[in-house]
Amino acid sequence: MDISKELFQIINQSGAHPALGWKHCQRVYHLSKELSQHLNLNDEVLYISAMLHDTGKYPMYALPNVDHTLRSKGVAMNLLKSYHFEQEKLAKILDAIECHMYYSEPGNSDEAIYLRDANILDNLGNIGLMKLLSLVGQDELIPSPDEALMRAQTFAEALPKKVYSKTGRRIAVKRREEIMRFLSGIKRQTSEYAWI
Questions:
Q1: DSSP state, residue 38
Q2: Dist. CA 23–CA 64, nearest whole Å
Q3: Is the pLDDT of residue 194 over 90?
Q4: What fold does the segment set 1-115 form as a domain?
Q5: Which of 35, 96, 140, 192 lies in the 20 to 30 Å Cα band around 25?
Q6: Where are the chain's structural domains?
């Protein structure tokens, strides 16, 4: 089976919430390519890493008390065995998956660094707000709309500082402003969030 078709099936049959599934992975892949267009990155490493980076949080693969980055790395390792990747390529994919979260240090390769930046940026701006609001009641960390707004505020304050690349930092500033404009408007329209 073609690996891109298999990756599509894995994500779409995993029980992934639409805000965290295939389209999120596509955005992360394309944004990481955009951020790194001045470099010659391995597109296969970038693509596979982007498609598999969150599998460990999807219901079919998630394990209790296991960080989804480590679980995603394990799922990827098992899947990619059958494709006989050269060791260096496999190591880059697994490193990018393990280091994709904002709370991780950037990985060892450019592919890992730009994948992480793209994933962070997908949690900011209008798209980040859309994701947070669509997860209200679906994610234990976002039980209510006001929790989603508090998380958006936290992301706007903290995540731009986590972006490593120069281009990514410029985008992070713009996306932070999008969140702040939204929050300011909601605050005005709900008596300082009292009517949410």
A1: T
A2: 25
A3: no
A4: Hypothetical protein af1432 (1.10.3210)
A5: 140
A6: 1-115, 123-196
